[in-house]
Write a structure and sequence with these properties.
It is a single chain. With about 375 residues, the protein is of the alpha/beta class. It has eleven helices and seven strands. The chain has a four-stranded parallel beta sheet, with helices on both faces. β6, α9 and β7 form a beta-alpha-beta unit. α1 runs antiparallel to α2 and α5 packs across α7. The radius of gyration is 20 Å and the shape is globular. The N and C termini lie far apart (about 50 Å).
Amino acid sequence: MKTKKNKTLTLVNLGGPRSLSEIEVFLSDLFLDPYVFDLPLPEILRQSLARFIAKKRAPKVAKKYESMGFGGASPLVQETEKQAQALQSTLNTNSEINWTVEIAMACGFPNIREERFKKPSSNEIYLPLYPQFSRSTVLSTYNILYKKFGECPIGSGGIVPHFGNDPDYWKLYADFIIEYFSGNLDPKQFLHYDVYPKSKDWKGMNLVFSAHGIPMRLVKKGDTYIEEVNRNVNGIINHLRKKGFIGGFHISFQSKVGPAKWTEPNTIQVLQNLAKQKQDIAVIPISFVSDHLETLEEIGEEFREISMENGANSFYRIPAFGIYPKFIEYLAKIVLKADHNVTSCICSELGGNKLGKCRFENRSDT
């Protein structure tokens, strides 16, 4: 009998505190990352400021986490673990390989910098759970691996590329939205599930695709994030139009931090304008695949309150994918074909940056 080949897949997410005691650690990891907290300062000053901000923000952030009902923790790590378990089962069912699926976080724990997370290769595969490329997410993950192993991980055969540009993903997302509005999703698979009344016609609604914002200085450095969000949303809308959707759609950005100029329009401004027109509104977390603080608290509570106070006729929060079976199947598909997907230095092409020693030396450093 032929022995099955063993492979390990690591799902990489941004992370979140698993308890109140981890909040400052999580924030420190977040702000110490030069691709997240990107300021035109000498590195020693940038790091000192990052630690100061993390310590100062921790008590305020703790109150938000406490309000979600998870004992002061973020559900992100637990939700990513659920995705890992579902994906491991699907991969082992649909391939002749013995898969082990783990999770690692860029900030907090379990931390991707830990020794147990090995060098990317055809047997040690990493899947960052960010649909769109950004310096602050995908490139940040690549940089952590680069610093850890001394070479850019792209081209190693161990990286599953981001998937927001994939037309199959657009169709998947459109189908997910329709299943939500049709009442066909399993509420038990989602946190704080927002039940939609089947009697209401969703086809004339205003869909607000809310992405996590980034500072405009990242865009000026070559980050293609805005372009990818727009392409992603337009692909989804094209599929929805084929299914009869005639409503409006809007792209906006949330979670701004600090005084610097960030991507616009801000989601709050878009919701206020629509609410004052007495519109039916559904917010879609286009840059998130797992529910957490930004989807449950910011969208589900803060944005809902703002919308209803300003006169919205109705407000719905469409959940992140979580363990939606068709999403898990989609992830399995892109993992199984990942070895052949990367053929160039996408760090420089999409983020305006080359990390260093790269397998695609013919690419110029921008």
